[in-house]
Design goal:
The protein is an alpha/beta fold and about 230 residues long. It has a single domain (about 5-225), classed as Alpha/Beta hydrolase fold, catalytic domain (Rossmann fold, 3-Layer(aba) Sandwich), CATH 3.40.50.1820. It has six helices and ten strands, in the order βααβββββαβαββαβα. The protein has helices at about 20-25, 25-30, 95-110, 120-135, 185-190, 215-225, and strands at about 5-10, 35-40, 45, 50-55, 65, 75, 115-120, 145-150, 175-180, 200-205.
């Protein structure tokens, strides 16, 4: 095995950012610390704060407070007007994808090179689109050797369907999803598999997270050692 770890660009999920995603992948980083170096970036779009009126606090009547973590980010919005995202929302057009593609290109220039790319949830859906762009030779800067998609799915936006047309993508891919995922159900992740030729699957019994138990180490290692 090579002494030099594989460098992997990590694409976070909706309402996360690079720092919060790094924290959530602590177990995975520990599991694969001798094999990989994970590099995290943040999406360019800030998610508008969720506002709730009179949340049972001592707030003045009509005053709003922000709910949720600070600096929540997203790669695109399915609801253009509300600037929100729902993986199940069918839409004709989206907002923000082009800027996110530019952000990935900037990361490749400033932080690269990278052997592979990893995405979680909305980030995994973005990774599938980036892989399609690489396959279709639409972006000469994209040269990923493999992709890991955790809780991935096909975008329901009409303007994104071009990414799933044509022959299956040849980039080696590992698709990780949970049987008890209530955010991106297993069937949504399975619906993405035909877009990738020879897609490898790691199915776990849990929910919406990146599994990193010792029982998963071998699957990750067997997949990654092909590229070292």
């Amino acid at each position: 095995m090579s002494a030099v770890p594989l460098r992997i660009l990590c694409i976070h999920g909706y309402r996360q950012n690079g720092n919060s995603f790094r924290e959530k992948t602590g177990a995975l980083r520990k599991l694969l610390k001798k094999q990989v170096e994970l590099v995290f970036i943040s999406a360019p779009h800030q998610v508008p704060a969720i506002q709730e009126e009179n949340c049972g606090t001592n707030q003045q009547p009509g005053k709003t407070i922000s709910v949720g973590d600070e600096d929540q980010r997203g790669w695109w919005f399915s609801d253009v007007h509300a600037q929100s995202f729902n993986a199940r929302q069918e839409c004709e057009s989206s907002l923000g994808l082009e800027e996110s593609i530019k952000a990935v290109k900037a990361a490749l220039k400033d932080l690269g090179p990278f052997s592979g790319i990893l995405g979680f949830s909305q980030g995994a859906a973005l990774v599938a689109m980036l892989c399609a762009m690489q396959e279709q030779k639409l972006e000469p800067d994209f040269n990923f050797h493999f992709a890991v998609l955790v809780a991935g799915f096909r975008s329901a936006c009409s303007e994104h369907q071009r990414f799933y047309e044509g022959p299956a993508m040849t980039i080696p891919s590992l698709h990780v999803f949970g049987q008890d995922d209530r955010v991106i159900p297993e069937e949504m992740s399975r619906d993405l598999l035909p877009a990738f030729d020879g897609a490898q699957v790691l199915l776990h019994p849990g929910g919406h997270f990146i599994p990193a138990a010792s029982s998963h180490r071998q699957t990750y290692q067997d997949f990654l050692k092909r590229f070292q």
